[in-house]
Amino acid sequence: MTISTETKNTRAPFRADHVGSFLRPQRLKEARAQKAKGEISPEQLRQIEDEEIIKLVEQQKEAGLQSVTDGEFRRAWWHFDFLEGLDGVEGYTAEQGLQFTGVETKKRGIKVTGKIGFSDHYMLEHYKFLHGIAGDAVAKFAIPSPNMLFFRADFEEGIYESDEAIIDDLVTAYQGGIQALYDEGCRYLQLDDTSWATFFSEKGRNSLIEKGRDPEKTAELCARAINESIANRPDDMLVTMHICRGNFQSTYMSSGGYEAVSETIFGGLQVDGLFLEFDDDRSGGFEPLRHVNRDDLYIVLGLITSKFSKLEDPAAVKARIAEAAEYVPLNQLCLSPQCGFASTEEGNLLTEAQQWGKIRHVVQIAEDVWK
Predict the structure, then answer these.
(1) Residue 369 and which of 3, 21, 47, 118 are 20 to 30 A apart at CA?
(2) Helix (H), strand (E) at residue 141
């Protein structure tokens, strides 16, 4: 299936788009396990990763997508793997994993042991490979937003005296990283961010207060981190942001609608597009979209769940798109799954065939809506 000419956008995000991560093929899972046991070399694992990513790119094209990713096939975590590549950041085995609804991840954490910076990054090679095989599709690369280090890292004492100083160095590091990706050909970058969900509920806001942080001031710092990190991006580089409430083995971490920080998100962030979760009641309604105040900001509605296999009723999805269009013009709306299919290498609880059924579902509905 291919997207019709009428449906295609000339610029990302596309009418039918996706967040980026895909279920790891069994061959890749086995190879990673073999590498961990020392049964195969890093070079052998890299060869298998290359081959599986080439297959994945072709599958994305065959499903009708205009943007392609490497599925995050070289990563174990959507965020930690990237953040550990920044100067001054180290990974470590934490005392406990991240807590999701009814399930806990494996034990992993990151800590800041020196000044945060960017001198080089091993994932530049990951992007270069994707760029080289994308062909006529747009190579999309997803990295965690700077806020993820701010929220998730442990900071050793004496390195930073204030949150503002942390943001200063984070911005400088991300500016360097974004320019380096651009220099390698990246024109479609996505920042993944779960930190905003902290502000959506009273429980989340109280957790900030318990840590001695004012929720309003913290939200301002998060917006500053995003806007200043992307401020120097070249005109032909599009940067979107995916706002997530957690995605691990088909469970979630937080709930709540966008209203509490809607003016900041929809009226204050200088990204080119926002990928938003709207696949269930946890995300609230479309009313916060009334704060969208730019005609060049695309809103990607995550109305198709990546957590479960059942296909949504197309008529119901189209009705929800029409409802969202009461707040944002239809020509600024797009459609996608609410999140990736494998934010961590464990993946969500559906099969690869069901995963591709979801992607084709997005493409078909987009074809029908944007004719």
Answers:
(1) 21
(2) strand 138-144
The one-letter amino acid at 351: T
Q: What tokens were used for 7?
A: 């449906």
H/E segment holding residue 335 = strand 333-337
Least Cα distance to 69 among 58, 57, 59 occurs for 57
- Work out the burial of residue 203: count CB atoms within 10 Å of its CB; fewer than 13 is exposed, 13-18 middle, 19 or more buried: exposed
- What gap in Å lies between CA 145 and CA 130, rounded to an integer? 20
pLDDT tens for residues 298-310?
A: 999 999 999 999 9
Query: Tokens in use for 293?
Result: 């105040």
Length of the chain equals 371
Second-level CATH architecture of 26-369? Alpha-Beta Barrel (3.20)
Over residues 183-211, the pLDDT tens digits come to 999 999 999 999 998 898 888 899 889 98
Q: Are 366 and 334 in contact (CB under 8 A)?
A: yes
Environment class of 94 (CB within 10 Å of its CB; exposed 0-12, middle 13-18, buried 19+): middle
Helix, strand and coil content of the chain, in percent to the nearest 5, comes to 40, 15, 40
**Between vectors from CA 30 to CA 145 and to CA 73, what angle results, nearest 5°?**
25
- Its pTM stands at 0.93
Q: Is there a contact between 244 and 197 (Cβ–Cβ < 8 Å)?
A: yes
Alpha carbon distance 334, 299 (integer Å): 6
